[in-house]
Amino acid sequence: MLKLFIAFILTQSMLFACALCNMYSPETKVSVEVVSTDNTIENLKFNWEFSDPFTQQLIEIYDSNLNGMLEAKELKLIEQALIDYIQPKSFLTHISYGNIINKEKSDPFKVVSHHLYMKENLLQFAYSLKVNYPILNDYVLFIKVNDDEEYFLLIMDPHTQRFEHTSSINQIVSKQAVLFSISQRTAVQNQTAATISDEKVKQKQAASSQTYLDYFTNIVKANLQKVKQGDLWALITLMFISFIYGVVHAIGPGHGKALTFAYFSAYKRSYFKAFVISLCTAFVHIVGAIILVMVSYFILNTFLNRFVSDALFWLTNISAVMIMVLALYIFVLKYKKNSCSCCSCASHTHGENKKRDLYFVLTAGLIPCAGTVILFIYAFILKTYLAVILAAVFISLGMAVVIFASSFLGVSLHKLSNQSHKITRILEMGSPVVMFILGMLLLLSTLL
């Protein structure tokens, strides 16, 4: 039972957490200004104010000249990525005007302008809608902003909603909607508020303090800029920092260390074989990031698209299922071997071992690494492809060192267990059980 105890202790800090490294919904304050004449509502002006953490993330990625600011060229790239996401979704805006509110279908509108800019060190996005509504007594203007996919957490600012008119305008603001009631008499707020249903909003906060990933990205960006100018020493520094990052990042939660430990505890392997498999696992981890960024850039032409987040979600789920399938397969093989002493059950061909090892490599390395995703984004922005590929290789080597340490412990534990047939049986039957639990926990972490 020693193996099971050690494995469960390791799982507390070694679960696959890489896919969840830096995903959160940026809180965005929304302001609305209703532009009207005496008889007509002509335009609706919206302004989104993005949070400081989200603004800083975009500066880290798109600030190609490292001046700590987003200039016109850089803002244009971000605006295009944002438009690509919100335009097919009607700018995440729902409008209804009349004596009855239609919450199911929005009135048609035309976007006449949009502009991304910086104000007081915060990213702002403004857009204007053409509506041409006649101003009639007892009519209601209902405006709602919402992202169904929860990439943006849009919240109406109760202090910045404006509708100035000679008529009496009563205003009710909820978290994601604002209602303007046009009347010659004072409306009862409680009756009007009943027309707006409360929206349940998930708030995901990102830590504002600088993490080692932030520190790494800042160093990478600075060195890539120098590499672009022909600085060879910057390239050497970049490779060294990438290797250190690979080691530190792999020591943290995830990256298959517990899975690797359990796998090599179940099977007799040489240390060289364990090293090769560890290296391949880390390499696949990097290749996954390359493919993800290339698909995002060449097919979707944006780095802010929901595709990256969704891809990580599905890759995590697929990896979890593959882990559980592999665990069940190993458990069945070990059960047959221990319950039957015939030669056909006790022996395994070299080809079967290779297939099983290949399946394990793909399973353990399927989820891309956040650090390498950021690296390849910089590659396309700064056009430093060779330097980024070298940095990714050294990240892979750094991760391989840590993964090999886990596999080394697994191989060593299996060799020690050979002194006792009972301990060997516990290891061989217990290891796939631990692997199955790891896969199940990984799956539950994305679904709950």
From TrEMBL:
One of its GO terms (molecular function) is nickel cation transmembrane transporter activity. The keyword Transmembrane applies. Residues 1-19 form the signal peptide. GO terms for cellular component: plasma membrane. It is found in: Cell membrane. It is a multi-pass membrane protein. InterPro entries: Ni/Co_transpt_high_affinity (IPR011541), NiCoT_RcnA (IPR051224). It holds the Pfam family NicO. GO terms for biological process: cobalt ion transport; response to cobalt ion; response to nickel cation. Keywords: Cell membrane, Cobalt, Cobalt transport, Ion transport, Membrane, Nickel, Nickel transport, Signal, Transmembrane, Transmembrane helix, Transport. The keyword Ion transport applies. The chain crosses the membrane at residues 232-251, 272-299, 311-332, 358-381, 387-414, 426-447. Efflux system for nickel and cobalt. Belongs to the NiCoT transporter (TC 2.A.52) family. This is Nickel/cobalt efflux system. It comes from Candidatus Marinarcus aquaticus. The lineage of its organism: Bacteria, Pseudomonadati, Campylobacterota, Epsilonproteobacteria, Campylobacterales.
